[in-house]
Design goal:
The chain folds into 2 domains: 1-34 and 149-280, no CATH class; 41-135, no CATH class. It contains 12 helices and 10 strands. It has helices spanning 4-10, 43-57, 62-65, 67-78, 85-94, 101-111, 114-118, 120-126, 137-157, 174-183, 219-235, 266-277, and strands at 2-3, 25-28, 162-163, 186-187, 190-191, 194-196, 201-202, 206-210, 245-250, 255-260. Strands 2-10-9-8-7-3 form a 6-stranded mixed β-sheet. It has a two-stranded parallel ribbon with strand order 1-6. The protein has a two-stranded antiparallel ribbon with strand order 4-5. Helix 1 crosses helix 11 (219-235), helix 4 packs antiparallel against helix 5 and helix 5 (85-94) runs antiparallel to helix 6. The two termini are 15 Å apart.
Length: 280
């Protein structure tokens, strides 16, 4: 069983990828700001902090915005990596008010715990601690700029209609999920092969993924997006019915990449459904 990201990483694609990144329309945004060259925090933590702080600063309840991090903290407590998740979480949540340095530092420490939810074995092997996460001034400034760019991005491309979206059926059922695993079947958009995964943002007609890499999107990124779109359609959830485009926003580069799903050949969608996501 894989997550969407791990499955996309594991698949051997043809040259250029199933959905070649060069096929995407590109919009270059500009705010006249140059980011600092170096950051002293792991890139995955930076990216997740930008994602969750963007959700929070766009009106999402803080507990919901950092839900995965909070769950990860309790798993870390169960593994005896920390003594009390509640005592760690409470001051960090209180420290998050906006995009000031204290908020960003608190957010980075909190999202450290994501790995305990998404990859607990890797977290145990890492032998690190949230107290080791101490973004400096340059890192805080970069994160702040990327969050501000994300806010402007949504001003241009439409308001957030959903974030942290998943692909369960309209009416989730734990027993049905367990049955999917046992029978190698499906559960909404998930299958025994791709049994987990959550996306970043939806606007009225587009499924968006945020990347903060210094590089352009790769075929792995575009396959991940294609999988999200297909899984949304299979989920039966109403919010995916009007999603006709997929896109990537990179607030580090301040560049938008978008693709009209009407251009995707039907046989490619069928290939991904059967051979990658593995619908029965």
């Amino acid at each position: 069983m894989f997550s969407v990201t791990k499955r996309a990483d594991s698949v051997k694609q043809p040259r250029g990828g199933y959905l070649n990144p060069s096929w995407f329309d590109v919009d270059v945004l500009s705010d006249g700001i140059t980011l600092n060259d170096t950051e002293n925090v792991n890139p995955s933590i930076v990216g997740t902090a930008v994602d969750y702080l963007t959700r929070f600063n766009n009106g999402k309840d803080i507990v919901d915005a950092f839900d995965v991090s909070l769950r990860g903290a309790f798993r870390a407590e169960s593994a005896k990596a920390i003594k009390s998740a509640e005592k760690v979480i409470e001051p960090l949540l209180k420290g998050i008010k906006g995009v000031d340095d204290t908020s960003i530092i608190s957010a980075c420490k909190l999202v450290y715990f994501d790995v305990w939810f998404r990859n607990p074995i890797g977290a145990m092997a890492a032998q690190s601690n949230y107290t080791d996460v101490n973004p400096d001034k340059a890192t805080c400034q970069n994160i702040r700029t990327m969050i501000n760019r994300a806010t402007e991005f949504f001003n241009i491309y439409g308001n957030i209609t959903s974030d942290g979206f998943t692909f369960e059926p309209e009416k989730p059922n734990d027993k049905a999920y367990e049955n999917m695993i046992k029978t190698k079947g499906s559960y909404g958009g998930y299958t025994y092969m791709v049994s987990s995964g959550d996306g970043d943002f939806l606007t009225a007609d587009t499924l968006w993924d945020f990347k903060v890499s210094k590089s352009k999107p790769t075929s792995k990124h575009t396959l991940q997006l294609l999988m999200y779109w297909i899984m949304g359609q299979h989920s039966g959830q109403k919010k995916y019915k009007n999603i006709t485009r997929i896109g990537i926003f990179n607030p580090r580069l301040n560049v938008v990449y978008k693709y009209d799903m009407k251009k995707v050949p039907a046989d490619l969608i069928q290939l991904v459904e059967k051979e990658i996501i593995c619908y029965p």
